[in-house]
Every structure is written in C-alpha cells, then in structure tokens.
Amino acid sequence: MKKEIIITLSLLYPTIIFGQQPELLKHNNIAIIELTTLNSSARETNLSISPDGKYLYFMSDQGKQPWSIPYGEYNGKQRFDGDIWFSEKKDFVWQKPICLDRNVNTSAGEDEPNISPDGQFLLFQSWKSTWQFTRGPYYEAELINNKWNITAGAGGGIHEFFMKRSVEYRAYATDGASLSPDRKTFIVACGQFYEGNMNLFISKKQNNQWQAMKKMEISTPGDERSVFIAGDGKTIFFASDSYTPNFGGLDIYKATLLPNGKCTDIQNIGEPFNTANDDYGFILTASGREAYFIREGNIFYADLLNADPRIKPKPTVLISGTVADKTSKFVETKLELTYNDSIIATSKSNAKTGKYLFVVDKQFTEVVIRDKEQKYINTKIELKGNESISVDIKKLALKNWAITVNFDSNSSQIKSSYKLKLDALSKQLSKAKSYNIELIGQTDSKGSVAYNEKLALQRAKSVKQYLAKKGLRPEQIKISGTKKKTTTTRSTKLIINATY
Of the candidates 352, 374, 394, which is a domain's last residue? Predict the structure, then answer.
C-alpha cells in the first residue's frame, strides 16, 4: 500500500469537490481484534462476507497450492500469485480457511471476490491469459451443489473499460471491487500502476448489460481504494489518503451513494478503525453489528454494539430458509421476492442444502416469495420490523395435462360418457393446492363463421357450468377463445394446470 501523503492537496480536496469537510465519527469502547486464524505471514485483503455473517471470502497470496508461482515479496517475505479463500463461522468461531479449487483459482492470480447474498454466485477478478477474449477480467461463478463453475465474463462496459485501458497504458491495476446486493451496481478502484494513485469507477447494469464505466466524483487526485457497497445498496465504504480529517496513510470513509452515482455525507469512520497505518477494506454484515477490515495486510474484527450509530447502513431484513419438495428433498430453484407484484430481490436455493437468502429494505411491511416461473411457490411474509425471518418452503408438484370433450353436430350438450370424465377431473382437482383451467371451444368447418363461433363459445360455456356445479371455482376456469376446425372434430379442449 502507498504511504505517502500529499498534505497540502489532501486539505483542499474536500472543499474543492464537495464544498464540505467530512465528519469525524467517534466511538466508545470498541475492541479491535486480529483474526489470527484467518491471517497468514502473507497478505490477506479484499474481503466479502455473506449478509448473515457465516461465510467470509478474501484474497491471500500465501500460495501453498499446486498451481502457485512466486510473485515478488511482501513484508520481506516471498509472496505468490493471489488466490481466493473462504472461511465458515461455526459456533461463533471462524474455521481454518479453505482455498477454492482450480475451477476458480489459477496461477494467473485471482482476487476481489464478491459473494452474492444467497451465497450461490461469486463475482471475482482473474487476469488469466484469455481475459481479453472471454469478456474478463471479471467473471461470475455459480455454486452447483458444492462446486463452483465459471459461467461467463462480466462483459459489457466493464470488459470494454479494461480493454481500452490495457491498450492505452499497456499495464493497469485494481485494488478492490464491490458488487451491490441486487448485483446491478459495480464499483472498482483502479489505476495505471498498483503502487500509484487509484480512482473509483462505477457501472450500472441495465437490460442485463453492464453500462460504460464512469469515474466517480468522490475520487480525488490522491489515492482511493477498497470500496464496499453495504447491504442497503445505498451506503459505501472506501479508503483514501486524501481527505481530511486523516490519521495517516489510508483511512476508511463512509458515504451515501445516490442513484446517479454521486456520493454525499462523507464521514471519516474514526478511531480505532483508522490509525497512522494503512486501514482499508471495511465491510459489514447486513445487521451492521459485525465489522471486518484490513490493516497492513491482516484481517481484523470489531463488534459495533457501542459504535456511533452513524457508521451503520440503513437497516435491512434477512429472509432465509430452505426449499424442499413434498418428499422433503432439497431442491434448486430460482426465487423472486416481490412487493405489490414488483420484484425487489432475487435468490437461488442450493440443490444440496436447499438454502436461500434475501436481503430486503425494512421499508417493506409485507412481501411474497415466489418461484421465477410463478407456478410452484407463493409464500406471503409479514416483516413486522424483524431483523431476520426464517421460512422453510415446500415446492409444490406441478401437473399439466389436457383432455377433450366431444359433442354431437350442432350441439353443446355434454354426453354422459364425458360427464364421467369431468366428474373424475373435479374430484382430482379438489385435492390440489391450486389449479386453473383453460377452455377452448372448437367446431368443424361446416356452417357460417358467425354460427361456428357462437357454437364453439357455447360448448366452452357448457363445460365451465358443469365443472362449477361439481364444486370447482368459476374464477379458476377461463374461456380463452374459440377455434374453427378444418376437420370433422367437434369438441372443447381443456388445458389444466394444478399444484399439489
């Protein structure tokens, strides 16, 4: 990390850019604890934590892998190409870190992991030799059962930005990137050289495509690094050596991110987080209670119970649980969290564990979980000011089928043999959790168009009336249209969808 501070300019930046001087937060009785279980003699940096605080991902250049190659020195000791590691918290204790396998890590150096709220997707950086041809250098991996599989490069404006810089400068470096919980905002710290000054750049995803990267106004002529977008999607933390107040080296600052990419309410988060050393990489769990950050290449932790409340993002609610079928077997499915039928968050349950997780703004009072196809799951949840809610979901079995009711010529009267079929259908659907029926009346090609359309409609109505008499709900039976046949077939077709 850079340690030079241009004092004269750092005093001017806040006034020049914002016309305000960042506030200094002050805290009482906060202990800073080094997480020795996670740290090595090498460098650890670029943290990402699951919203529930159970999984921590980070980069370490300690090597020790079959693919590891020497890559200079750190603190006088040999370092290796970076790899992505993770640790799981069990019974409030972080376990020994595990290095992700070759599906993600290579000898090219992987860094800047960003785990999605549901833990099923990982955005990370890799400068592998093919990055220019595979829409890199940022890639997304998906967790299938318990194996990570790279699905695609980020592409779009992110890829174009780094392609242009690689041609313009021949060398380019980054030091920290963050993806918002809804996976639609991306911010990265980058510059021409790793040891030089860096700036923050932002991209928004629209129509599933990353837009052009833009330099953020929060950047200074000094050094900005290690950005983090908090669980509310509106609060960011970043490190800078060029704002005042400043305790020396890189300090951690908080700001509010506006929809247009600008930032307001800049605050130095103060001691004991900021010191004369380089302090950076600040992240929080969704509750805002647990904080993690980097100091001189090591991971530290702090309980924010007694912290200045202004350090915390806006409150969110965690909705988590498992998805299983009617046999209690865990299943993988894509989920949507909706409010007034608008999608506000997405998640995916894991095929091996069934686990899913949503992070939602506390402004919502009632939400609905449904599956992406809107056929299997429809679960209403009242938030009631809770910080976390656990809901286990049963994925209903879906049955689709069609039957046909035939009629005599010029008739809409249902024959006795078809009444028996409709009786059986009514009995079967009475056991379903939900169902809907689509009726399509049909005639042969004899007679005028007007007569045939009227007869086809009457046939469909006859079937609907009969099913209603048998106890099926009329509002679940829809006459979607009529169809003139070119054969001698005279019928009404029933298309049935039911969940059990």
Answer: 394
Distances (CA, A) of 251 to 1, 113, 226, 243: 12, 22, 11, 9
Compare 424 and 89 and report the one with higher pLDDT. 89
pLDDT at 302: 97
CB under 8 Å to 490, separation ≥6 — which residues? 406, 407, 408, 409, 411, 442, 443, 444, 459
Is there a domain that residue 425 lies in?
A: yes
**Token pair belonging to 490:** 């005279």
Query: What total number of domains does the chain contain?
Result: 3
Burial 287-318 (b: 16+ CB within 10 A, else e): bbebbbbbbebbbbbbebeebbeebbbeebbb
Answer whether 166's CB lies under 8 Å from 159's CB. no
What tokens were used for 110?
Answer: 């992987």
Query: Is 471 a residue whose pLDDT tops 60?
Result: yes
Torsion of CA 38, 44, 48, 51, to 10 degrees: 30
Does the pLDDT of residue 485 top 90, yes or no? no
240: left (phi over 0), alpha (psi -120 to 50) or beta: beta
Burial degree of 221 (CB within 10 A; 0-12, 13-18, 19+): middle
CATH number, domain containing residue 349: 2.60.40.10
Q: 19-49: per-residue pLDDT in tens?
A: 557 999 999 989 999 999 999 999 999 999 9
Domain range for residue 478? 398-499
456 and 385 share one domain? no
Which pLDDT value is given to residue 6?
33
Q: Token digits for 240?
A: 């800078």
pLDDT of 136 over the 60 cut: yes
Strands (E), 181-297: 185-191, 199-206, 209-210, 214-215, 224-229, 235-240, 251-257, 263-268, 279-284, 290-295
Mean pLDDT of 60-82: 88
Cα 436 to its chain centre, rounded Å, is: 32
Report the helix count and the strand count for the chain, using DSSP H and E.
Answer: 4, 37
Burial class (CB within 10 angstroms; exposed 0-12, middle 13-18, buried 19+) of 170: exposed
Structure tokens of 170? Answer: 């021949």
Out of 311, 342, 357, pick the residue that ends a domain: 311
Question: How many Å separate Cα 33 from the centre of its chain?
Answer: 29
Instruction: For residues 402 and 380, state if they share a domain.
Output: no
Beta strands 70-74; 83-90: pairing state: unpaired
pLDDT one-digit tens code per residue, 211-235:
999 999 999 999 999 999 999 999 9
First vs last Cα of the chain: how many Å apart? Answer: 59
Residues 217, 69 within the same domain: yes
448, containing H or E segment = none
Question: Structure pTM?
Answer: 0.80
Q: Output the pLDDT for position 445.
A: 82
Q: Same structural domain for residues 223 and 323?
A: no
CA distance 395 to 378: 9
**Separation of alpha carbons 225 and 290, rounded Å:** 21
